Amino acid sequence: MKLSEYAKKNGVTYQTVYNWWNAGFLKGKQLPNGTIILEDDEKPIIKNETNKCILYARVSTSEQKEHIDRQLERLRTYANAKGYQIVEECKEIASGLNDNRKILNKILRNKDFDVLVVEHKDRLTRFGFSYIEQFLNYKNQSIEVMNLSENDLVEDFVSIITCFCSKIHGIRGNENRVKKIIEEVKDIEE
User: Fold this and answer.
1) How far apart are CA 70 and CA 79, in angstroms?
2) SS3 for 33?
3) Hey, is 65 helix, strand or coil?
4) According to a count of CB atoms within 10 Å of the terminal CB, is the N or C end of the chain lower?
5) Which stretch of DSSP H or E encloses residue 30?
6) In the CATH hierarchy, which fold is given to the domain comprising 52-145?
7) Distance between CA atoms of 14 and 4, rounded to whole angstroms?
């Protein structure tokens, strides 16, 4: 099976599987054209079979505070279903545009977990998701997104609009403007 199929089947990113392949955690063969084929029932040989995970839930404003507990409950259910050992549950009220979040920075410095579980990519960050993912992969850790979106292009567009609205109108003053733009984009998409 190809790396991309293996990633989808096991709920991890392609980059994580590629890193496991490079680290020797997976067995298979590489074809002359560069394609890597794994054995069908291959399980990664990871340093820790318990798959210690950290759950990360984030909302942007204190008005959304009641949503964070429900988000964390969904993450907890997901992690338990996957058989992960939850070592920490983190809640943060901060903008996804803020690149200096205390709790997220603490997680990124933590070496005692295997998987960081988030509900959506934008719950972790609005921009730079792949940088965080690569950083964790370098440390033999991974990010698992519970709900992957089918249309990343629209999500990226929404993130860009959110960022620009925040810069123009201030981070707190743009909620209604962003909602209106998002609704217009979704109408166009349909």
Assistant:
1) 14
2) coil
3) helix
4) C
5) strand 28-30
6) Rossmann fold (3.40.50)
7) 6
- Note the pLDDT tens digit of each residue in 119-177: 988 888 877 888 889 999 889 999 999 886 555 556 666 666 666 666 666 655 556 66
Reported as a single tens digit per residue, the pLDDT across 15-51 is 877 877 776 778 888 889 988 888 766 555 444 456 8
Vertex 119, ends 104 and 58: CA angle to 5°? 40
In the numeric block, the tokens 């990010």 are attached to 143
Q: What is the number of residues in the chain?
A: 190
H/E/C letters for each residue in 105-132? HHHHHCCCCCEEEECCHHHHCCCCHHHH
Please, what's the largest Cα pairwise distance for the chain? 56
What is the amino acid identity at position 7? A
